[in-house]
Model the fold of this input.
Amino acid sequence: MFYKIHYHLVAINMPLESNSELLLAPTRTENLLAYVIPTSSCDYHLYSFYPRTVRACNYLPQDSVLLGTPEAFGSALASV
Done:
């Protein structure tokens, strides 16, 4: 779902800030499409969809996040 939100394949606005404006190149652990992880002081927010998903997606391999279709992305996730 996060992939679809990022690539505007569903009618949901991304409420998060991308790290792409902050990074000139991906860090050793993050890809170019990394997002700022929302801060949380409560567990119910910390483990909700966006914070939990951003933590996982930021560390996906660069070639996986740049795939052009949800199907290709899903196949890449299956091999990670």
About this structure: Residues 2-78 form one domain. The longest helix spans residues 49-57.
